[in-house]
Amino acid sequence: MLKNDTFLRALLRQPTEYTPVWLMRQAGRYLPEYNATRKQAGSFLNLCKNPELACEVTLQPLDRYALDAAILFSDILTIPDAMGLGLYFAEGEGPKFERPLRTEADVAQLAVPDPNVELRYVMDAVRTIRGALDGRVPLIGFSGSPWTLACYMVEGGGSDDFRTVKTMLYDRPDLLHRILAINAQAVANYLNAQIEAGAQAVMIFDSWGGALADGAYQKFSLAYMQQVMQQLKREHDGQRIPNIVFTKGGGLWLEQIADIGCDAIGVDWTVNLGQARARVGARCALQGNLDPMSLFASPAAIEKEVKRTLDSFGTPAAGSGHVFNLGHGISQFTPPEHVSALVEAVHTHSRMQRAQT
Amino acid sequence: MLKNDTFLRALLRQPTEYTPVWLMRQAGRYLPEYNATRKQAGSFLNLCKNPELACEVTLQPLDRYALDAAILFSDILTIPDAMGLGLYFAEGEGPKFERPLRTEADVAQLAVPDPNVELRYVMDAVRTIRGALDGRVPLIGFSGSPWTLACYMVEGGGSDDFRTVKTMLYDRPDLLHRILAINAQAVANYLNAQIEAGAQAVMIFDSWGGALADGAYQKFSLAYMQQVMQQLKREHDGQRIPNIVFTKGGGLWLEQIADIGCDAIGVDWTVNLGQARARVGARCALQGNLDPMSLFASPAAIEKEVKRTLDSFGTPAAGSGHVFNLGHGISQFTPPEHVSALVEAVHTHSRMQRAQT
Asked: Are residues B248 and B221 in contact, defined by beta-carbon separation less than 8 angstroms?
């Protein structure tokens, strides 16, 4: 039994006593204890692939802050790694693939991995974390979106202009569609396996959807997230498993994102939460959207920004739900004590909001 | 007298025979002739500061392509350089300032430069280019927005998270407002001096407005562009001087941008032009918005994307106007011959659109 299910209720647009909060990348480099565990693991990938250490870092932020959810510690690129593309991390350069997809032959060889075989270490981590959490807060599972995975798979790493994958998009859309169809199946299987292993909510990170042109976004990112949605388990062990879709830079497309049938939409800080709520209506809850850079200001300034964010959503009423989060992952340079100010302000002010209405 | 005023008429929402086109950063590193002139100048800054060479590179793309406007070749950071911050370019690192604004004392010393003294080289370039153009097409003058200049002035260079300037924004908004007020006056004076020197339209590049949170954008970027608008010359020598405001990533705020009284709004490729047209109505023309990465595809694919972009705007009718452009500056790696395909497709298809209605 969950001791705190506020997060799940907000995602399902049920009443909550306060606005639940968690932070994207909450287990990460801004925490000295994370850096110590990572050092012990030897590398980021070792940390991801060791269920005990992944569990340890997943729980670290919960011991510091009164967060309302835990998120599986893992990498966004586990799927293409399981597909055999050879994920590695060059020092100071971010993720790279030894064998990026460039030719028709590369694409023809691509196959959907079995999450309980090639990605068993992720499912082991989910099971270990669920045991260690012991019902404290719900555990979120996650995956990159089919398009976001394809960006890395075709580019062979990060990119600031997505030239290679977009050239494929405009010149050989057939190849890209084939990659995306395989990715969509792989993501659906992966998230369903996480749900079976114990994930109590799942999130799709469409980190690079906002790099696409209007029109291309719908065809090359959203359509494949819809395919994932259609195959996603909505219940497990008698519990509803809510899902969240987050397209960074996707504020113009919220109505269309709501149309794919997700429970909640993540939004970045360029979005006005009140307007977003009016646009998606009672179809979805919203998650977001404080500017992560506001955490570099003083606790008093952080409190002001938290209040402004909660007020822009307004008091959650019947059929609406808000999960507080940043609009993007927390910066590695964030002072850890500022996160306490954020979490306290969310809980305090959101209780006051409800008391006033 | 202008031989081709299609661009100006589209900005003023007057009928045109076809959709005019120019490209942000059209004089630049993708052209071998530009690289030759730059080499001759010795450095990028020398090129900006030499009116004859700046004129030469401004005209280079017009000799290759049937573009409908020329844009002054200059740097976005001439104003803070004229304020004494010490602009320099570290090899492969982009622009930097020797003396960024960090303290109250730094900000207290900031003053509005006289564009006809400290920025005289820019006005000389405008006059030289106007002479060399001899009425072929209109000349666009430009400036960075007050906020975008402030980003560089406070960060001391480019940034991927704007941590320093945003910390000032959240912690010391008074300091940032002082910088922005001075920048707004400097930008207004600078653009008015360009108009007096011969610029026939002006554009404000708010390249980093889209990095701001909703709410902060309105207070820290849009409000200061409005101050510029209020002081901007709208006529010179009996001619209307239209202006364009371009906030990259500003698609959510188009109605509010239209409210500051600009003639045209630049939009990036995430925006649907038809929806944007419905949102701003007859208040403003639109400029944009092809994904610059589509220029890496084949000429046939480029033509298809151009047609899609023109069709998304629809046929310009009374009170509407469309200037074709990319949604951001052209990439330095673009094959120059692909730009011919783009320009031809815009002209051909937009004439066909008009013939069909």
From this structure: no
